[in-house]
């Protein structure tokens, strides 16, 4: 790889004549390389590590001052056929998993790509383990009888994966340029020939001339304009509350890769789809319920417990036993007006504090963990307007703004189900049906809203992860990875295939790098 820095001819002449001084303009750096990767999240660092494993020395451009971005937050990833599964006697089946994914998406997906991503997921888990990442177990948020037992949790979370892959890539010759956002693709004779970027700190233009380009910028979750334009859930006038982004305070996923590809003819698919996650407390930033103080994490867990979920009319709308299946909750809440309330009496409050939740909050608050911070949850939540406590049912209904008659009738109906052990409306599990004391308070409520953490739309690709134009032809030398890929999801993430999106990010980065190197003629 060769590097050289030059001054433009005009600037050089002006400098020589004394018309300008040296600091008045920024230099331009030119880098020649075989492969440039745009984006340093899970898919980008995976592509860089894979390339360096095979002897290539790519350039990676990252717009932020840290690697990983939102890719630091997943707890684990999908893996089918891993060494860990085999060592622990867990049976796996690639075809069953592929079939489930295709059926869930009603076959409106890219089966050639999906098969590769699922079939290679196990080797990807083994690969990151070989890089030094430890697996702390396989968990599920699904009912046990429905789980595929494929969600491998990383010790230290995905941030450890980012660190290990970046360490490996740099040790083997990758060049990683931080705070250097890509601005546009360079085109020559109708082909992608590199990337133009700018160093955010110095203003220096960086021209990376490359044989192949991989765009892996993470989608557009943090671009409010694009969310408003493409995602109906964000602007539907029938809902009481728009969707909130659950992400880091600094989030670089603003659609850079998708927009750059679109400007050179890239065709999009699935742009209206997000991975919704609900319910969450309406407390900003929502990510603090994921990795913040205990009273927030436990509050989020309490919100999803299978007591009594009501909509803005004071009526049930969902099977509360499935409160951990966050994509289903998101969909049901969207249909019910965008908000919900979970109703507790003192006995249920005390039960959560003493013996813990009946259903988990991801792997963050597990079943049976006493929610000792729940009093502080309500203390803070009442100040912030999303937690409520009242001596009577009527007063609680008034506080949360639902018709008292409806709330009372709904609670009485649940009490009837508690007598028979059968929920004839939504099929809540018998062990989750608990009667309310209708005579004696206090009564409690927590408000829930919808969040999202990932967009699923992007640029259409072929089986070699090459970007496609509107005619279905590959855009020469351009590859897509991670959340910049489009056409894989019809609606949302299927969390029965748990950890799929983070797994797809890692594996698509590896596969895109392989296909790019193969096209270059690099011997692997």
UniProtKB/TrEMBL annotation:
InterPro entries: FAD-dep_OxRdtase_2_FAD-bd, FAD-oxidoreductase_2, FAD/NAD-bd_sf, Succ_DH/fumarate_Rdtase_cat_sf. Residues 34-487 form the FAD-dependent oxidoreductase 2 FAD-binding domain. The keyword Flavoprotein applies. Residues 1-26 form the signal peptide. Its cofactor is FAD. SUPFAM superfamilies: FAD/NAD(P)-binding domain (SSF51905), Succinate dehydrogenase/fumarate reductase flavoprotein, catalytic domain (SSF56425). This is FAD-dependent oxidoreductase.
């Amino acid at each position: 790889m060769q590097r050289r820095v030059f001054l433009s001819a005009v600037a050089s002449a002006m400098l020589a004549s004394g018309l300008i001084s040296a600091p008045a303009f920024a230099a331009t750096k030119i880098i020649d390389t075989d492969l440039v990767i745009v984006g340093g999240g899970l898919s980008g660092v995976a592509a860089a590590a894979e390339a360096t494993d095979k002897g290539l020395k790519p350039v990676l451009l990252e717009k932020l001052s840290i690697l990983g971005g939102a890719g630091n937050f997943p707890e684990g990833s999908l893996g089918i056929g891993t060494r860990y599964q085999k060592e622990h006697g867990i049976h796996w089946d690639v075809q069953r998993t592929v079939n489930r994914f295709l059926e869930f998406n009603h076959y409106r997906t890219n089966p050639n790509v999906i098969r590769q991503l699922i079939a290679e997921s196990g080797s990807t888990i083994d690969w990151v383990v070989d890089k030094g990442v430890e697996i702390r177990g396989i968990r599920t948020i699904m009912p046990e009888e429905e789980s595929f037992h494929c969600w491998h949790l990383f010790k230290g979370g995905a941030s450890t994966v980012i660190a290990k892959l970046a360490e490996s890539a740099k040790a083997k010759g990758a060049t990683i340029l931080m705070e250097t956002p890509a601005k546009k693709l360079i085109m020559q004779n109708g082909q992608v020939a590199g990337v133009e970027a700018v160093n955010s700190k110095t203003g220096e233009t960086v021209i990376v001339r490359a044989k192949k380009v991989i765009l892996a910028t993470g989608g557009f979750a943090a671009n409010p304009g694009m969310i408003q334009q493409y995602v109906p859930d964000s602007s539907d006038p029938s809902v009481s509350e728009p969707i909130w982004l659950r992400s880091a305070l600094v989030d670089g996923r603003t659609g850079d890769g998708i927009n750059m590809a679109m400007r050179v003819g890239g065709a999009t698919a699935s742009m209206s789809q997000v991975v919704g996650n609900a319910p969450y407390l309406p407390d900003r930033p929502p990510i603090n319920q994921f990795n913040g103080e205990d009273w927030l994490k436990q509050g989020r867990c309490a919100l999803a417990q299978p007591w009594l979920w009501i909509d803005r009319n004071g009526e049930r709308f969902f099977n509360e036993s499935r409160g951990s299946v966050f994509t289903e909750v998101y969909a049901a809440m969207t249909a019910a007006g965008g908000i919900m309330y979970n109703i507790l009496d003192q006995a249920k409050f005390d039960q959560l504090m003493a013996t813990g939740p009946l259903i988990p909050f991801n792997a963050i608050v597990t079943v049976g963990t006493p929610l000792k911070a729940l009093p502080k949850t309500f203390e803070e939540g009442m100040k912030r307007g999303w937690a409520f406590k009242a001596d009577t049912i009527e007063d609680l209904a008034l506080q949360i703004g639902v018709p008292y008659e409806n709330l009372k009738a709904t609670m009485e109906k649940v009490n009837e189900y508690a007598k028979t052990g059968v929920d004839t409306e939504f099929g809540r599990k018998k062990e989750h049906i608990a009667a309310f004391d209708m005579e004696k308070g206090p009564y409690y409520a927590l408000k829930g809203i919808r969040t999202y953490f990932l967009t699923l739309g992007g640029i259409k690709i072929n089986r070699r992860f090459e970007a496609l134009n509107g005619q279905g032809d590959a855009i020469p030398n351009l590859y897509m990875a991670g959340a910049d890929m489009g056409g894989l999801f019809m609606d949302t993430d299927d969390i029965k295939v748990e950890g799929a999106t983070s797994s797809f990010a890692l594996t698509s980065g590896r596969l895109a790098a392989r296909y790019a190197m193969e096209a270059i003629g690099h011997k692997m």
